[in-house]
Amino acid sequence: MAYYTQLGEVPSKRHIQFRRPDGALYSEEVFGTEGFVGPTSTIYHIHPPTQVAGWTKLYSTKPQYVEQDVMRMRHLKTFNRTPAGDPVTGRVVLLGNADVEMSLCIPAEPMDYHFKNGQGDECIFIHFGSGTLHTTFGTLAFGPKDYIIIPKGTIYKMAFDNAPDDAPPNRFVCFETCNTSHILPPPRYLSRKTSQFLEHAPYCERDLRLPKLPLTVDEAGDYEVRIKARDSVHSYTYDYHPLDVVGWDGCYYPYCFNIDDFSPIVGKHHMPPPTHQTFEGHNFVICSFCPRMLDFHPKAIAVPYNHSNLDSDEVLYYVEGNYKARKGIEVASVSLHPQGIPHGPHPGTVEKSIGATWTDELAVMCDTFRPLHPTKEALACDDPDYPQSWADWKPDASGQAQDGHRPNTWN
Ligand SMILES: [Fe+2]
To answer: Of 96, 219, 327, 393, which is most buried, counting CB atoms within 10 Å of its CB?
Structure first.
């Protein structure tokens, strides 16, 4: 994150003696990025973080992309996927490239180990479920529609609460950097002098939920930390609990942001996707399409114009809302609109949008500057008829929107 905070106990200066109650020194760890000139935190451990007892490579995480030379629109229907694995092993990459990987996880079992992604930042979007993220930097309670930003190197265990019998299974989407960049708010939202969120930003510091106490676990034993690096997960063994931090300070830590706390920017005429931007990494952005008032020009067309986003592939994950205006789209659908071919409203939806004043849509979008490739798991739930779904257009003379019609504006 961009701004300074601290939790727990830290000494009055960096790099000075800071002692445990038994007189021994705490172990200071500078947790830095970008060659120590990027966001950094300083962490104080009870035990030296370098003490590991053993390691072994467990499994490869390298996505196997298919149809890399095929350019076509896709619609992945993910709602009925079967729960599998834990919140790490259950992640199934659907789309990705050299910059970012998008995975879906419907965990079936708890993690009985801690995990560190030493390869990239993670932006997790919780669709269904709640629980607790236990991290190096403290505890984060999470719930439905939370984004959780977990920066590279954070050790954590993700513990879901048991879902009620009548609720959908716990489910999240994960965007993970694989180009060494970090997932941060767009720089244009932040003051160049203080890193404070500016007045025009659609969210600010008060919307971010930072790690809280409890922070420290002081226990000896054999603890497994699985570390992802080099497209592989390794198992390391610590002889003390890996969350043995008594305090930290700095600008590098995980946090939560609920999508309902995003304050959409509306306009007299249709506002373009960058107004919905929430985060970015190098070569990709993440946007939030939230319920909001629609355009207020007396002759406004609320749904988007047909558009070619010539330098971007566009992925939408549909969270909730009225999907009737979009052929075949359902909760947990994923659409991919690649650069190279225009897309836009489905037949009949333009006329029906006229006069509407509100949208209930809720969707998470990821735009990438390099083409996205599907995996075979994506093809397994792909709707091959989706690219044809615009084909049966005919003029709709129905005129004004019917009462209660609430169009979706993602496209
Ligand atoms: Fe689009």
So the answer is: 96
